Amino acid sequence: MLKAILSTMKPTSFLTSAKAFLSFAVLPLSVFSQPIPAPTLAPMQPQPPRIVLPNDSTQAAIENLRAPNVHPGYEEKLRTFGQFIGIWDMDIRLFNKANQIVYHQPGVWMFSWILDGRAIQDVIVGPPRSDPANGERRIGTTIRYYDETTKRWHITFMTPTGQIYIHLEGGQKGDEIVLEGKDTDGSMLRWMFTEIAPGSFHWLGYTSPDNGKTWRLEQEMFAKRRARVTTGKGSAWWRRNDLRGLESARLQRTNNGWLLSGTSAFEHARSPCLLNYQVRCDEDWHTRLVLVDGWADQRFVHHQIAVKPNGRWIHNGTELAQLDGCIDIDLNFSPSTNTLPIRRLCLAVGASSRVRAAWLRFPDFTLHVAEQSYTRIGTNRYEYRNGKFESEISVDSIGLVRDYPPAWEPLTGAAADRRTAANEAFARITHEDYSLPAAG
């Protein structure tokens, strides 16, 4: 580049420019009669910056690009796109100028933190247009960066399979996210995220050949969040602090959804209570069937709660229209059922969501609507609110509740220690010597 610039300059102009440059360079000496102090440099560090060194050196760039979480203090700043962190199953449609669908295929859109959690990168994958079953997949990636000075998002999208490179800018506008830029042919683009919910959103891509006077829909995608964990199981023990008690629960996969089961033993009104429960959910963590059996306050307990496909809740054969719109069951004698909305919502760190739960109240075992909210404040931590009650809940790697202060705390230690503590707790509560199985 320098050679090209110099080749266009005439000798006279070059000398003049050089003389002017030298005059400017010595100006501080002639004006101030003292040299400009050299900049102060930080001491040279003995070691290079810390990096991730994978076994395969060809993956070093990828390993150092990705980040496990949002950068501390950036949760709210990056929430606009941070809420999409995770995997989304897509219904992709492309339209021609006559508004006819020319492509309709499933796809997958994956969002992740990068650059120490200060930016977001996503990858979208779909079948090819010509031979969806056997051809090379369509794949593209986007870098999303928030400019703190202008308060605008910058995104750069590229796809080698489509020979496309696009830059757009924008941000949150009301309940929508609007980005605008130019296509490779110079026409204007407007990309929008609409109908945004914790588990779904609607994406629209418009083009304008007349500089924004008219707009035509050329792309549309319907997104549904994929559950964080598709397989796996886990269990937990809790010690109850507000009422002397103990509880164990187990979460496991079934053929058509999830099963949360447990046993809660505690003292209430100077009487022992023992409650066994099962909660069955579908693939999307919607409560479908709840069974609670046992005894409480010297009386036997049996409750069956079913949810019809239309969302109507039925408690021991009685339909409860007031619970329409509720998705999750909340057993107020147990911390375990908070797992259900946590797993269903799959919130990104910093994101919040309101929940309308069917709250089974102890000791009268009546069902009520509970307006609740969850805010994910860390990888495994959630701020939970139910009316005036607040708690910071911690979960394990599969989303099962571990710590629920102040009422419940995890019973930790080796399996033998947990069994000993459990036997002692049961003996204190029931005034009998219950022995638990030896299996941890």
Q: Unreliable segments (pLDDT under 50, ≥5 consecutive)?
A: 1-31, 427-440
Strand content: over 45%
Indicate how many domains the architecture comprises: 2
Q: Numbering strands along the chain, what is their spatial order in the largest sheet?
A: 1-2-3-4-5-6-7-8-9-10
Terminal Cα span: 71 Å
Count of separate DSSP helical elements: 7
Major β-sheet annotation: 10 strands, antiparallel, barrel
Radius of gyration over all CA atoms, rounded: 30 Å
**What is the percent of helical residues?**
10-25%
Characterize the overall form: globular
Number of strands: 25
> How confident overall, as mean pLDDT?
84
Which structural class should the secondary elements be placed in? Answer: mainly beta
Give an overview of the whole structure:
It is a single chain. The protein is built from 7 helices and 25 strands. With 440 residues, the protein is mostly beta strands. The strands form 3 sheets. The chain has a 10-stranded antiparallel beta barrel. The chain has a 9-stranded antiparallel beta sheet with strand order 18-17-16-15-14-13-12-11-25, covered by helices on one side. A 6-stranded mixed beta sheet has the order 19-20-21-22-23-24, with helices on one face.
Main features:
ten-stranded antiparallel β-barrel; single chain; disordered C terminus; Lipocalin; globular; mainly beta; nine-stranded antiparallel beta sheet; disordered N terminus; 440 residues; 25 strands; 2 domains
Question: Any chance you could write out the topology, listing elements then pairs?
Answer:
Elements: H1 2-7, H2 11-25, H3 27-32, H4 60-65, H5 79-82, E1 86-95, E2 101-114, E3 119-126, E4 138-147, E5 152-159, E6 164-173, E7 176-182, E8 188-197, E9 200-208, E10 216-225, E11 234-240, E12 245-254, E13 257-268, E14 271-281, E15 287-296, E16 299-307, E17 313-315, E18 318-320, E19 328-331, H6 339-345, E20 352-361, E21 366-378, E22 381-386, E23 389-395, E24 401-403, E25 408-410, H7 415-430
Parallel strand pairs: 19-20
Antiparallel strand pairs: 1-2, 1-10, 2-3, 3-4, 4-5, 5-6, 6-7, 7-8, 8-9, 9-10, 11-12, 11-25, 12-13, 13-14, 14-15, 15-16, 16-17, 17-18, 20-21, 21-22, 22-23, 23-24
